[in-house]
Amino acid sequence: AKWCVCSVCGTHSPRLHACLHCVHFACYQGHIQDHSASMQHNLVVDVEQGQVLCVACGDYVYDTDVGRIAQACREKSRRSLGLDTEYRAWEPDQVEMTLLQANPKRRRPTANSTIGLRGLINLGNTCFMSCIIQALTHTPLLRDYFLSDKHVCQFNNDSTRCLVCEISRLFQEFYSGNKAPLILHKLLHLIWTHARHLAGYEQQDAHEFFIAALDVLHRHCQGNPPSNGDSTHTCSCIIDQIFTGGLQSDVVCQACNGVSTTIDPFWDISLDLGPCPYGTSKADKTVPTSLADCLDRFTRPEHLGSSAKIKCSGCQSYQESTKQLTMKKLPIVCSFHLKRFEHSNRLHKKISTFISFPEHLDMTPFMSNRRNNNNNHNGVTTHPTDINNRYSLFAVVNHVGSLDAGHYTAYVRQHRDQWYKCDDHMITRATIQDVLQSEGYLLFYHKQILEYD
Amino acid sequence: MSDRSTQLKNSINQKLVETGEKERLKDMLRQRLTECGWRDELKEHAKEIVRERGLQQITVDDLVKEITPQGRQLVPEAVKRELLAEIKKFLSSQTQ
User: Which Pfam families match (chain B) (predicted)?
Assistant: First the structure.
């Protein structure tokens, strides 16, 4: 940096070039051209980018080997400064180039395009499945994966056995431009075969379907048959890459203050809505009215009563303890399940209270490092919001009606942030206000910033 | 161009490069310009120019001359302000 100045005028100009024939640095605005003319040194290189200029031709010249060397040097310099890899736009390889040339027709969605939207015929209480399929087909990363044909089938592309193949086919249908509604009989059959607990003609729970679908997709994605103790930590299938997060559970022994930490994978966060049944503090008595309230309660330290003593490995005795859940690793898609149907307690009623949720969500206050750094729970510390923890809403599943007679609909965010309501085969335009004022049962958020590993 | 101001410019630049701040600021700028669609718009414009003139007839300099005015004009104020703020922050941290 100290020596990278023009040999003629001594300034560090923006397009400094280095002579490839001798040791000489000069500005692009005349000085390097003078040098080339006087010394007959025609080839010079841009020190920032690594592009080679032929002064005689008056333009840059390109060579694949030189390009590779330039890129390697840039990578090296970035790494030495502690920066991430440079973002490189996608370039087609030989096979892709041939395919592109053989298929010259290009589809370009206009601003009003309805690409990606298709209705789903209700086959008799199948709206629980339709709304989840709508949410999945509008999950940006998942859509990109399937539209770029990345699935390698372990069942020899037998779509009667492989759920991933069927989902892949559905994505192709959704984005084909065809507007006619689809009939998901094949998908339904596959789900009934692989998730027996969902078979039958009654209305099922959309959340249960969501988890079952992810589970079957995850199993069918894996190359090898899953071993016992299906370790989702080491799986790198697309489902895990997108949906799996890590939930940290810290149990603090009240006697010796020893902390026992475990991290478990999760695909979604189920949030309680009623008043806290066993809480003692004032905060526990209030009912949540927003997603933030729910997440606050979810990550609040909870005193496990005297009837739930844990064996502490530190002091080797049964002691009372507090337990706290925090987010260790955030998934790319954060799915929230508002527990409106309590099947466990005596009240078989639906909790219909309005829970407000934002269009953009910051998960920073619920992260594990917040807990690890300050052990005082009462301090309202202001944390610098990490932009990596920011999420945007892209789908909402709503349940209308009561526990016995209900109907599911979904709002999805399509091309150019336009929202649509999906009610079985009817797709209608909606506004973000419609979405934010809806009751909300399942909320799907997508990370705003993606990092390359 | 006075020697003193050149010296100052060079030493500031040296500090920016050596700490990696220059690269980091460039990354941030690239990201902001991509996010607001600046990059895509300019890319389209450049492609049009190449299509008009023909790939063999055009030089990098020609392209730079054509798209620079539009490029300069399209940078959002917010991005300029953010970059300026970051530079100021860095400079004040250096004179400690």
Answer: EnY2
